[in-house]
């Protein structure tokens, strides 16, 4: 079975990420859980690591942020990004990390995927959430990257800001996520 999936995935032809593949990791993170997962992934894949930021950041207040996100989801309005990626063409693999927001892909990541053309590239989503899962976010990534090869994503429980639980990626949880990330990367072909 491992062999069958290796054949389907061009990245695994040699059982490792070919050295000439250029990797970009773009992540959105408010309370740094997704950032911590991005850093764990980055240690294993290398490449460029970029935080996705808006020109006008969301409010510090959680409730105000939830309300703003709800409005943006309703209207489809996408805030302009502060982050710019220098020549996206040069990357073969783009990993995109984000929290679940209102059971959806957060508007800034929708903005990123609409702004940058990832056609022909391998796209790999990863996520943290408060325990309710990825919602529609991975599906939306596929919809917004119709000409990309979207690989199986990774998701783990992060904080619960609503209940005042912010950063959790430390101690045993951090170790557990390091192992889970390694297993997932092996499964999708990023073996080093
Ligand atoms: C505006 C907003 C909406 C959220 N909506 C959800 C949700 O629908 N489901 C869920 O499981 N977690 C939800 N969360 C919790 C985050 O997904 C979770 O805390 C995540 O780990 C935060 O990642 P970060 O530390 O990288 O910002 C929401 C958080 C925010 C700020």
Structural commentary:
This protein has 192 residues and is α/β, with parallel strands linked by helices. It has one domain (20-187): Flavodoxin domain (Rossmann fold), CATH 3.40.50.360. Helix content is 36%, strand content 16%. The protein is built from 6 helices and 6 strands. The chain has helices at residues 2-8, 33-45, 62-75, 107-115, 137-144, 171-188; strands at residues 23-27, 48-51, 93-99, 122-129, 149-150, 154-157. Strands 1, 2, 3, 4, 5 and 6 form a 6-stranded parallel beta sheet that branches. α2 (33-45) links the parallel β1 (23-27) and β2. α2 packs across α6 (171-188).
SSE blueprint and pairings:
Blueprint: H1 2-8, E1 23-27, H2 33-45, E2 48-51, H3 62-75, E3 93-99, H4 107-115, E4 122-129, H5 137-144, E5 149-150, E6 154-157, H6 171-188
Parallel strand pairs: 1-2, 1-3, 3-4, 4-5, 4-6
Helix pairs in contact: 2-6
Bound molecules: flavin mononucleotide.
InterPro entries: Flavodoxin/NO_synth (IPR008254), Flavoprotein-like_sf (IPR029039)
Keywords: Signal
GO molecular function: FMN binding
